[in-house]
Request: fold
Amino acid sequence: MAVDLVSILAEDFMEGQFLGRASSPEGPVVIAIVEGKLFDLTSEVASVSTAVARRQFAGGRLIGEVADGLPEGWELLSPIDLQCIKASGVTFALSAIERVIEERARGDAAEAAQIRSQLEEKVGSGIRSVVPGSADAQELKAALIAEDMWSQYLEVAIGPDAEIFSKSPVLSSVGHGAPIGVRSDSQWNNPEPEVVLVCDPQGEVVGAALGNDVNLRDFEGRSALLLSKAKDNTASCAIGPFIRLFDDTFTIDDVRKANVDLLIEGPEGYRLEGTNIMAEISRDPLELVRQCLSEHHYPDGFVLFCGTLFAPTQDRDQPGAGFTHKVGDVVTIRSDRIGTLANPVTTSRDAPPWTMGITEFVRNLTSRGLIDRV
Reply:
């Protein structure tokens, strides 16, 4: 089914610039939107990572008006390709408390409600009021240790070092409309609506997209050493719909002020809504980028999930059991200045297989005479 591009773009898309990807019958293509018109940049830059590195966001072949949609036989993809996919966690006070709950409940959702009320009373206000890494944060840490309330999650919530991890392999993220995967053996999980910053090889932020950092609360709750199993599974990383590029109409300050709305619609009529308010983040987005860059080198650039304030606790089936996904859920993430990312939920076991890795990507571009454009 053809995607209505106008419905998933930012409300002011006629004023902004957007970069993305699509699959064509020949293979992946790089597309751009400028002044409401859709362009194919592939003959000049055959990867989004190269377009970002060169700042080549215009030109190419005019496809037509955005309102006319993609050409027949084309499908929207995740708007990134060769960039490393990184994520930051526990960047909001609420998410910090929820991670501690997972840890103390050992991944058992039935234990969460009672632990939540105890933790919120004892540590909630303190976590919300301190600047991570500050002297006040160190005093709070000492007090929590004395009360036997300390946790490794509080360390990254209020300590000097942010949690930064590798979310998903290169080329593995899925885009708008594609199924997202939850491990078939997970019993407690949720979506995570986030802003995703897109950075060049030097760590300069060039724009932002939306992301769903699908989360398994039971796996990570049993042990933080299961983070990779909790985060990196087939189709568990969704990014889209496009990268909104920074320009006079959209800047990092718009990211700082963004609201990211979440809607979950279940096959049984269940409905859950929430909002990720970026103004409540505990570390500035550019500080997260700085810590992600750190002493690393990303020759093809990187993208960074900024974390989420949203951790659904509304009961779905059994009282006190909280929220968990069901196959057939539809998760819609929207921010007015960035766009809409919507994905149906399946299991990672049953999600469409990931077939275009780096080797197949290079083979495809070589067969099309485009390998020197990467």
Q: What stands out?
A: The chain has a mean pLDDT of 91. Residues 90 and 157 are 5 Å apart (CA to CA). The first helix runs from residue 5 to 8. The chain is about 25% helix and 30% strand.
